[in-house]
Amino acid sequence: MGFGNRDVPAVATDITSVRRRHRLVLLGLVGLLVFVIFVAIFTGYTGPIAPSGGDRLSFKEAIQGIFGHTNDSVFFWDIRIPRVVFAGIVGAALACAGTAMQAIFRNSMADPFIIGVSSGAAVGAVCASVLGFGAFLGSLASPLFAFFSALVTVLVVYSLGVVKGRVYVDTVLLSGVAVAAFLGAVVSFIIYYAGERYDRLIPWLLGSFADARWSYVEAAVLPVVAGALVVYLYGRDLNAILMGEETAYNLGTDPDRLKKVMLGVAALMTSAAVAFVGIVGFVGLIVPHMMRLLVGADHRILVPASTLFGATFLIAADAVARTAVIGEELPVGIITALCGGPFFLYLLRRNRMRGES
Amino acid sequence: MSGNKQRVVVWNLWTLVAVAITALASVTAGYYIGSSGHTENGTQASYSVEWDESGNITKLTVTDDYGRAVALNGVPKRIVSVSPTPTEILFAVGAGDLVVGVDEYSDYPAEATNRTKVGSFTLNIEAIVGLDPDLIVSSDLVPQQQLDQLVELGYPYFIFATRDFEGVFKDIRMAGVLTWHIAEADALATSLEARVNEVALKTLAAGVTKPRTYVEYYPYYTYGPGSFGDDLIRVAGGVNIGHNLTSEYPTATSEFVVASDPQVIIYASTSNATEIASRPGWNTISAIRNGQLYSIDEDILSRYGPRIVDCLEVMAQILHPELFDS
User: Fold this and answer.
1) d(CA B237, CA B276)
2) CA–CA dist A210, A243 (Å, integer)
3) Which domain, by its residues, includes B298?
4) How many Å is the maximal CA-CA distance in chain A?
5) CATH architecture of the region A3-356
6) Chain A residue with minimum CA distance to B242
7) pLDDT tens string B163-215
8) What CATH code is carried by the domain that includes residue B52?
């Protein structure tokens, strides 16, 4: 704390201690993720943990159900474990993409949906529903519609912001907002005039893991893991671009290339996640900020921290969504905003007070 | 103060009558219709009328399903129906020619579809004002503030919102009073009542085993305690698994359905059997292992007018083929 630490060897020690601290934080986040996964698997209508009601199992019965072949195995292996894994994948995708978006737009309001992914996917999902594929049927028709319409939307937004190979982030940002507003109106129009009941689309429009299954996990895991890896490997370049495009260029980062890669990867990850579960808001915006308050703005640590905590946060939120009212589903988007909002405000306020004193 | 007292007296009288009828019915036939919590509603409309010297009705006050006394200056001649259920009821009691406007979903009877369209959950207020109706009839699904907006513009509304079969008979008689088709409405309600009783006499008889039943009117959307669907399944001779949930119209979790192991699954035409059977873990459910999946037309399942009795008969036949000759 004192001025004595400001000499050269002390700074060197500081850097190593910071690195050690980062490693500890990451280890802690992995531990938290593993813990939350276990709790979530034990939480449910048929399980040892739930607020009230349901079929109570003992922990022993639950473990037998998971590792052996009992009548309860179906609840774990067919229903709950794929759901927990899928919530983790989606949470990781949204938080990781959100971190990348906030960096390249140099805008703390940016989130993975800022380039039109969610509104694009919504148009696809609502169209699939109107065409009779259902907003929530097990077939892959609706996710495919949502996925491709999201990608097409991002492509349109992106090409609006590119002039002669240069990516103008402000233009991309504003195009994203305008296209999202336009497509939002298209969705409302379809719901209104195609006689599609709005209440039945709510689970999709607020996000829900009710229909999660292994085939969804198989379809989404590759783009999300590969995408997160790419964002992680570009951590140093994300740090550079935060200091401005010229500085980044002088530090050996090609800003246009970086922006193209990040936009492409984020669009792919987010579309793959959103296509199956609908628009889970808040995670992609708030989790990166939470982690920035915890580990700082170095993307070499911020990206993995956000990815891990995004998974943890969404697994926990989904566990609440499926058990808060026993036997009934709540849209997970309600839970993420309800729990995440106040917690984030607390972190923000605490940090501000600390910075000031 | 005195008005309050009067209402209490009337309510007590109705309770007494309802209890007496219920007791009589259960003693004589060994069954009863309607969940016990709702018997005080009865099956009769409650209304008052004033005539002038030449015998014209000058004031008609009818109590709707929200308990609101809706006062009208005579029998309405131009009615706008903003929900399919009241549309079907008005046409069934022979008052279809009074209906000048309907919502987008009102598609039965076919004649109703050629009335002016006035929107759906979002009402087209201008179209309604253009029709200048004496009365708006609605279910409880239309957002209240839109109806209140119409009241401010001088158009009274009347709510049909039943949760059980008794309420259907009452709604039909209320529609009869509103349109002064009392005899037709009463005849219709009486014949429907007889059909429901005929089913219930078999399905609710002692010694009938009641299968655990899961009904979804949209993927994972089912009927909770206190809903019409809950009463429908009960009278059709099933045990509604959704009765153990909390909300009136819950979205069930997949686990809950698998854990409840329904013996029969009934789905509205918006779902399909292949998709239901392919949901993760659902292959362990008795209904799916034994091929007990049945579809019911969504419109008769969700509209609590005269056709709900068709739905009851279909459902009872599905749940108890042994009790009905097909």
Assistant:
1) 23
2) 42
3) 206-323
4) 72
5) Orthogonal Bundle (1.10)
6) A327
7) 899 999 999 999 999 999 999 999 999 999 999 999 999 999 999 999 999 99
8) 3.40.50.1980
Shortest CA gap A80–chain B (Å): 8
Whether residue A306 contacts residue A97, with contact meaning beta carbons closer than 8 Å, is answered with no
Place of tokens 């305008």: A178
B117 with B73, same domain: the answer is yes
Dihedral through CA A46, CA A204, CA A315, CA A95, nearest 10? 170
Q: Does B281 contact A82 at a Cβ distance shorter than 8 Å? A: no
Round to whole Å and give the CA distance between B215 and B222: 6
Q: Which residues contact B131 (CB under 8 A, 6 or more apart)?
A: B78, B80, B100, B101, B116, B118
In this prediction, the answer to ipTM > 0.90 reads: no
Nearest to A158 by CA among A118, A192, A114, A202: A114
Closest approach of chain A CAs to the CA of B306, in angstroms? 23
Burial of residue A219 (CB within 10 Å: 0-12, 13-18, 19+) is middle
Q: In the listed set B187, B220, B250, which residue is the last one of a domain according to the structure?
A: B187
Q: For residue A322, what are the CA distances in angstroms to A213, A332, B45, B284? A: 15, 8, 42, 21
Q: How far does A329 lie from chain B, in Å, by closest CA? A: 5
- Cβ–Cβ contact A189 with B under 8 A: no
Q: What is the pLDDT of residues A157-175, one digit of tens each?
A: 989 988 888 888 889 989 9
Q: CB of A84 within 8 A of CB of A276?
A: no
Record the pTM: 0.84
ω into B86 cis (within 30 of 0) = no
